[in-house]
Amino acid sequence: MDMEGEILVITTASVSSDEVVKKLGALREHVGNKGNVRMELLERLSLAGIDDSRFNFVLVGHFDPPDVILKADQLAFLLKTLKAGGKLKIREPLEGRSTTELQSMLTLTGYIDIQPGEGGVNTKLITCQKPSFEVGSSSQILSFKKKAPKVETKKAEDIWTISANDFDDDEDDVLDEDGLLDDEDIQKASTAPEVQDCSTKKRACKDCTCGRAEIEAAEEENKPLTGPVAASACGNCYLGDAFRCSSCPYLGMPSFKPGEQVQLTDRQLNVDK
């Protein structure tokens, strides 16, 4: 890994001084004038006075044998010390937690681009990165509003206005009302029988079909009238008052089924008394 800028190396008190001098010297020689290397003990990391977003690289387990197993709060602390886009490199012993467990913890802490690698004998290696933005930073979201297509509008009077010239068009769809009825229809309408109505007469018609003749006969014999007395001319007597004629003998009675026996009361038979 090509490293430059500010580099933080995490170690523990159990690492031998010879190992520290050897590895730390080699790292500083590798970085050269392109960066600055700083080492801190894990046990005193919170007391080191490290500023937030300072380091480009943080190395954990750099010394052999790697014996550092970071907790979630320590990973979160190192995340704060990294600059936006900074990288964390971790070497852990194989007998510790699994690579999957470490990857999950790094993801939950906020690291991205988590990649396992070759850590050497009895070790595992994982590199990850801090997102390219700082915690709490904000950015303006650009709005990409699509312009609504321009719709040509017309005035209502322009839409519904019919010009006199429109009627001169041979392909006009306007129907001729005189052509709706043929001669046969007109003849049937002129020969249709007139509706007989005896409501304005003193007595029922000779060929009464509305039931008035039977009612008058029952009144003369002083007998109650039961059952449907005759076939209705309109066929609507049983439907109710809303459908009955003005002279219907069943006015005021509830609707009934065709063929049902219907009894008229004395009050209905003697409506004029």
Would you give an account of this structure?
With 273 residues, the protein is of the alpha/beta class. It is built from 7 helices and 6 strands, in the order βαββαβαββαααα. A 6-stranded mixed β-sheet has the order 2-1-3-4-6-5, sandwiched between helices. The radius of gyration is 53 Å and the shape is rod-shaped. The chain starts with a strand and ends with a helix.
Q: What is the mean predicted local confidence, pLDDT?
A: 78
SSE string: EHEEHEHEEHHHH
Q: Fraction of residues in helices?
A: 10-25%
First and last CA, distance: 120 Å
Please tell me how large the radius of gyration is.
53 Å
Q: Outline, from the CA principal axes?
A: rod-shaped
Number of helices: 7
Which structural class do you get from the secondary structure elements?
alpha/beta
Features:
single chain; 273 residues; alpha/beta; six-stranded mixed sheet; 6 strands; 17% strand
What's the short version?
With 273 residues, the protein is of the alpha/beta class. It has helices at 17-31, 72-81, 99-109, 156-160, 183-190, 212-221, 266-269, and strands at residues 5-11, 35-41, 55-60, 82-93, 112-118, 123-129.
